[in-house]
Amino acid sequence: MDGPVRQRSLWQHNLALVLGHVGTATPTSRAEIAATTGLTRATVSSLVEDLLRADLVAEVEPAPRTGAGRPATGLVLCPNGPTGLGLEINVDYLSAAVVDLTGAVRHHVVHRVDQRDRAPEQVLADVARMAAEAVGGVDLTVAAARLAVPGLVNGNGLVRVAPNLGWRDVDVRGPLTAAPHWPDLPVSVDNEANLGALGELAVAPASPSFLYVSGEVGIGAGVVLDGALFRGAHGWSGEIGHVTVAPDGLVCRCGARGCLEQYAGQEAITRAAGIGRDPALSADVAVATIVELASASDPGVLDALRGAGTALGIAAAGVVNVLDVDTVVLGGTFAALADWLGSHVERELRKRVLTAEWSPIGVRASALGASATVVGAAGSVLRDLRAAPASWVSVHR
Amino acid sequence: MDGPVRQRSLWQHNLALVLGHVGTATPTSRAEIAATTGLTRATVSSLVEDLLRADLVAEVEPAPRTGAGRPATGLVLCPNGPTGLGLEINVDYLSAAVVDLTGAVRHHVVHRVDQRDRAPEQVLADVARMAAEAVGGVDLTVAAARLAVPGLVNGNGLVRVAPNLGWRDVDVRGPLTAAPHWPDLPVSVDNEANLGALGELAVAPASPSFLYVSGEVGIGAGVVLDGALFRGAHGWSGEIGHVTVAPDGLVCRCGARGCLEQYAGQEAITRAAGIGRDPALSADVAVATIVELASASDPGVLDALRGAGTALGIAAAGVVNVLDVDTVVLGGTFAALADWLGSHVERELRKRVLTAEWSPIGVRASALGASATVVGAAGSVLRDLRAAPASWVSVHR
User: Fold this and answer.
1) What ipTM was predicted for this assembly?
2) Taking Cα atoms as reference points, which of A168, A80, A186, A81 lies closest to residue A131?
């Protein structure tokens, strides 16, 4: 509330307020919304009409009568309203998902394909084809798309650097929307860990402030503070993979020494486990192999996971000391390895976080597991729409 | 703007809006405020009357006429309006300051006294006496006091732990307000680095998001994100002194190994410089000695500062990688040593921050130097008052 309050902004504000209430207390009723928000019944009714016509809200059968009087008509987020399309480029897979306003996943596809020996245009043409399939595969309106990339992304869709893809200053939005199959949709581009964190926030927020760590070939993080993703001065927050855990340690792809990625990244784990880096061994197979061997208590693999978990715990402890977040969520492939990594991360947090004795730090696997990023990307489209529904309503009512 | 907009909250909101405008564009006029905020002239005039009567705003002579028409009366923050009282307990000194609405320091006293062999009650009795002297020494209304402590502080004025004072679970607010000399004032308690960061934010904000690192015997930080101090889930953010810079390194007072404090704290520097820890050598004398020897290019002292600056840079790089803040401010005794520490911190940031090549990270000494904390504490009282002036205005108009 930075400016003076005028008529149009009041409508926008109150529209979001009513939709927000339907989203958190569902099913609700016009009377309940009026009571909770302090708006008049007439105002609520008019706003609800706008939301119904725009398919953001739907009416459902009233709940069984419990007291006197006519039972109120229930209001819920519309399951057949606008949806969000999430797209993900990662080192060794591509993925697409469609999520509706209720958070339900209506479409989800993963293609295993290694991007490291392919040109960005090839990759983006595949992504465009997957987007078209997704849009065609659901009988719903797709409001917009959001693409997740494992790297530093500028606001205008330029990927500054994605070290593990080998991309530098690659315009992603231009070639994607120009690709033959691309459906006519607005698209924005964001960092994969940021979108994973937003997915977690939407589905199972452990706390208003948490650190979401996404393990893939690289390691990224989403920093959620007071219920919102913190992006930093340039939108480049979350580079936990390059936090120093051994000042004179191994040289990283970024040029620095002792980065976390060199101790807890997927390749560091397979290397330490003695599985080696077989180019024919795709990452999902490598992770499945590690899980299998760890389940059988293979000492080499347990050792490798101890090393990775310890390094991850040292880096996470630094973040917790500085930010006082109370939960660390393990995402990406770390989610599949959480049974083994978790205890080492917890031990380091206990030892190294000054305040741990008063308030222990929770460590848990991402609720969405490996699909957190693409589902988070799809959901974040709707999160934005729900936070500011006015322009959607203006066009669609 | 989380709730519906009603009449009383509109007045509160617009009052803060007008006062905020006077604070940022000074001197201004009623007409300028109306033009900038979009409020009507009549509304602005009525709000300005409220602020004038409460001594938050004052009228000044109009600026010389430059065009046609009567020149407008200038409006400024009132230099004789309410003031804030800042108080600081640190390991080897106590301090008090009074700041007025314009940011001018109207009173500032530092007592050199080591707290380590004194009971909290003795220390707090001294602080109460200094508060009484400060209130008596300025011919202005003091709105409230804020006390800075180098430790973890709970919202209710309980110091959970201040490791370098040797305090644990010490109620600070109770004994302070019960002390014989305490002036009748509301008082709140906060962490010293947080208040130093707020001081920096008020006086010379390098950027909306920065890391303020305060070096004393311990090392704390204030994390400023998007123009506001980030306090964390429990108010315990900023414990950068316990970020690991050497996983198997020296044992810290907190029990962990390799904490930054053990490599860049005041005692670590004097020890490495071979000055030793002479109990008769107070910290200000030790810092003065280090500055003198470093200025004379003493190799041992330069080496000690290189070690401290490198460790500080490693820890700061981790924070910048995760938060994407673009400036590191060196406060407390680090401000006096910034000429020597700065280049080492910069080198580590350049090496270790993934995005440094696109956007270099600024490193500079605190504009307020050693008084940042106590001046920041005083100023933060007024910052709160200016952000929400309605209750002050209701009582004092």
Assistant:
1) 0.88
2) A186
